[in-house]
From TrEMBL:
Pfam families: DAO, Rieske. SUPFAM superfamilies: ISP domain (SSF50022), Nucleotide-binding domain (SSF51971). GO terms for cellular component: cytoplasm; membrane. Residues 437-522 form the Rieske domain. Gene3D superfamilies: D-Amino Acid Oxidase, subunit A, domain 2, FAD/NAD(P)-binding domain, Rieske [2Fe-2S] iron-sulphur domain. Keywords: 2Fe-2S, Disulfide bond, Iron, Iron-sulfur, Metal-binding. It comes from Paenibacillus bovis. InterPro entries: FAD-dep_OxRdtase, FAD/NAD-bd_sf, Rieske_2Fe-2S, Rieske_2Fe-2S_sf, Rieske_Fe-S_prot_C, YhfW_C. The lineage of its organism: Bacteria, Bacillati, Bacillota, Bacilli, Bacillales. This is (2Fe-2S)-binding protein. The keyword Iron-sulfur applies. GO terms for molecular function: 2 iron, 2 sulfur cluster binding; metal ion binding; monooxygenase activity; oxidoreductase activity, acting on paired donors, with incorporation or reduction of molecular oxygen.
Length: 522
């Protein structure tokens, strides 16, 4: 650590303002093509649902295998979690390896590491072979603890797991950036990149190979069979195919796999800042709370620092703007801030055992494959899912199939503890959401303000836009009937039960719901 740490750690933030609207650095610096919605009956070999890193990579790989592939997205390509990531390409996924050794076994832990490394190598080979201009830079990744004694003990145990498993990490007691830590694990040979520039190349290559892309096409359900059929919302036509690949947030179809009960949604927040102090390199994530993540990015010759963290369960907090403010304070204290051009948030899913779910949607449905539950490590896990599902469709063995199977048996105690906590939250929200609100009125709302209000004798959600127009919706989530809450930072209605999100006018932003909130006359 540098000698001027004491000065740097107390540096104050400049007089900066957070952007009014949420928009990611990656989206702002990438010009993407647009595609039409599906307008007629379609028959293809492979239907890929979800145009993020999993869907685009899988579509590309399957087209290279000679398959006739169509790619669908309910909104725009790369406008889901992939477009709002921190974009670290690493096998250092927090404190995962000691957890896997304790709750699964050593063999599973080393396979997890090797799977992430394989995905990273695939991506690097793609960049090098095709000379993709995506700011790919090799970095050392660090997971660190600032002060928490319990997490420091966990960090020491993680280092021991590295040693036992043969992972080439190194214990360090200082970082290249001016942040005091009690200890950290450094893992060399990791990478950062611009995810949309990388995936735009794959998407365009997929189109060259004859792949079809359809935006604004909501898949409402999948009918299983020898040839599955995808049902399109509000349309009589659909898509018939040999295989379905789901790369969407929640699987496009549940098929009684009960994914909504097994996966926990979490939101986290990110700033792209221009710092007063040059960033010294490396990628960082804290093991203790509050969670913080840092890495740099370069665009048009300018350096940005991507600062993330402050995660929480979706729909559990209304004053979400404070998370951006906290990140601004942290960034200013650490590096100083010239300005903050972009802010954004993203949502990801966690499984009960913290490993991705990749494979057949259920063990008896071999024509429907899913990749989900990346626990905020979607660059490697999403790429791995695409590779694995391609192998499964092509009839090739993949040594990670059993490890990540959605039907795998999880350690009983861990499964019960996590599931009870998750579903107790759902049950609580189903009851208290119907009862707990203060009876504000529409007249109480200022421009650009939203809240639960009492409207025509019932609980509703209202947002008054900057022009003064009032938008009123029924707050009952169309998935399973929980009550949504207002997310002030993103101007959205978020469900605390299973993470469904809706725009202020009621349109679906994120599943599992497929139907919009009912609009109410104001």
């Amino acid at each position: 650590m540098k000698d001027d740490t004491n000065k740097d750690i107390t540096r104050k933030a400049a007089e900066t303002e957070l952007p009014d609207q949420s928009y990611s650095f990656w989206r702002a610096t990438t010009e993407l093509p647009s595609f039409p919605p599906l307008r007629e009956e379609l028959d293809v070999e492979i239907a890929v649902v979800g145009a993020g890193i999993t869907g685009i990579t899988a579509a590309y790989l399957l087209a290279k295998e000679g398959k006739q592939v169509a790619l669908f997205d309910a909104g725009k390509v790369l406008d889901g979690t992939t477009g709002y990531t921190t974009a670290k390409v690493t096998s250092q996924h927090g404190l995962i390896y000691d957890h896997l050794r304790k709750h699964v076994d050593d063999q599973s832990a080393i396979l997890y590491y090797e799977a992430a490394e394989e995905a990273k190598r695939f991506m690097q080979q793609m960049v090098e072979d095709n000379q993709i201009d995506c700011d790919w830079q090799e970095e050392t990744a660090y997971v660190y603890v600032e002060s928490d004694d319990k997490e420091f003990k966990n960090l020491e145990q993680e280092m021991e797991a590295y040693r036992e498993l043969g992972i080439p990490g190194e214990w360090v007691e200082s970082l290249p950036i001016p942040l005091r830590v009690k200890g950290a694990i450094a893992l060399p040979g990791q990478a950062r990149f611009h995810p949309l520039q990388y995936l735009k190349f794959l998407l365009m290559e997929f189109r060259v190979m004859g792949g079809q892309v359809y935006e604004n096409t909501m898949i409402e359900e999948v009918e299983d069979g020898d040839r599955p059929r995808l049902l399109i919302q509000d349309q009589e036509f659909g898509v018939t195919c040999d295989k379905v690949v789901s790369g969407s947030h929640y699987p496009v179809t549940d098929q009684n796999g009960f994914y909504f009960a097994r996966l926990q949604p979490q939101r986290s927040y990110t700033l792209a800042i221009r710092a007063e102090t040059p960033f010294e390199g490396g990628m960082y994530i804290s093991a203790d709370e509050p969670k913080h993540s840092l890495r740099s990015a370069t665009f048009d010759g300018q350096q940005y620092v991507i600062v993330g963290g402050k995660g929480h369960r979706t729909g559990q907090e209304e004053e979400t703007t404070m998370h951006y403010a906290d990140l601004e304070t942290f960034s200013g204290m650490l590096l100083g801030i010239k300005d903050i051009p972009y802010r954004w948030s993203a949502q990801d899913l966690y499984s009960l055992d913290r490993m991705p779910c990749i494979g057949y949607v259920t063990s008896d449905k071999p024509n429907i494959l899913v990749g989900t539950a990346y626990a905020k490590w979607g660059m490697t896990s999403g790429t791995l899912a695409a590779i694995m599902m391609t192998d499964m469709i092509m009839g090739r063995e993949n040594r990670y199939t059993d490890l990540f199977s959605p039907s795998r048996k999880m350690p009983l105690l861990e499964r019960i503890k996590t599931a009870v906590s998750h579903n107790a939250t759902v049950a609580k929200e189903l009851v208290t959401g119907k009862l707990d609100f203060n009876r504000r009125k529409a007249d109480d709302l200022e421009p650009d303000q939203g809240a639960i209000i009492w409207h025509h004798g019932k609980r509703t959600g209202a947002y008054r836009d900057p022009d003064g127009k009032l938008h009123v919706v029924d707050t009952t989530c169309t998935h399973m009937g929980c009550e949504v809450g207002w997310n002030e930072a993103e101007r959205s209605w978020d469900c605390p039960c299973h993470g469904g999100r809706f725009s202020y006018t009621g349109e679906v932003l994120e599943g599992p719901p497929t139907e919009p909130l009912k609009q109410i006359k104001s």
